[in-house]
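Format notes (please read before filing issues)

Several people have asked whether sequences and structure tokens are stored in separate files. They are not. Every record keeps both together, in the order shown below: the sequence lines, then the token lines. Line labels are part of the format and must not be stripped during preprocessing.
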Amino acid sequence: MKIVCLDTLTLGDVDLSIFNRFGEFITYEKTDASQTIQRLKGADVVITNKVLITKEVIDACDLKLICVSATGTNNIDMEYAKQKQIPVKNVAGYSTNSVAQQTFASILYVLNEVRYYDDYVKDGRWVKSDIFTHLDKSIFELAGKNFGIIGLGEIGRNVAKVASAFGANVSYYSTSGKNSNQEYTKLSLEELLKTCDIVSIHAPLNENTKGLIGEKELELMKDGAIIANFGRGGIVDESALAKVIDSKNIKACIDVLVHEPIESENKLLEVKNKSNLIITPHVAWASFEARKKLISLMVKNIEDFLDGK
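Then the structure lines:
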């Protein structure tokens, strides 16, 4: 078999040599749309994360299997692949622990004013202090806080479990309307936004969630509340969020954006109250352990394909 991986930079420093067991394995750090067809000439299997596999690509190549090194398959023309009887195999569930951990790393970074206190020590101010501590910025506990989760899927449930362990009061809003978890309190979106101190988003981007949180919704939130988006860009209106961070003292932890990498004109980069905003570059999924698991599950996908599963 000939396997081609089109965008290894999106996988980081994990070892990909295991794919050599299947035959010829060729890698490219990144691939422009204009290069895709040429690079897939003669390939039986493509591994892609963000490189589009369109109808044009499918027609120009002789692919037997499309492997997506992610959960989402929106970069593949799924309907045409099905029509051409080319299996598309994605990977689900590999990053649950990683996303949950990054969610709390970011939320606690904000609650505990880590940036401010780290700077206070490193820029020499603590050296000049007359007392052993410094309390100019209040820090807050998760215990007793109302912690709302939008999207109670596998990742959302993991976040709920950790929030409960901290002593938070967990509630959720089901974006599909079908989730009826008995362990946590189910609320309407409006009630969740009005009552929660922390709102953490772990939903997919679909017709139910696109533009779900706009200026009207953000204005419902408590002054000083935290909104975290670890679901998908497009769920939260970024311009509205930038406005509310400065006007209402809303705090935000953002890992996903509509356009990635972030565009220079994104209003979030113009926020004045910078200490109330944490932006990470879509990294929550990518712990080393999660990426290793991703590779092993892709290997299994290829094995299953070869076994006719």
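For reference, the curators noted about this record: The longest strand covers residues 146-150. The two ends are 17 Å apart (CA to CA).
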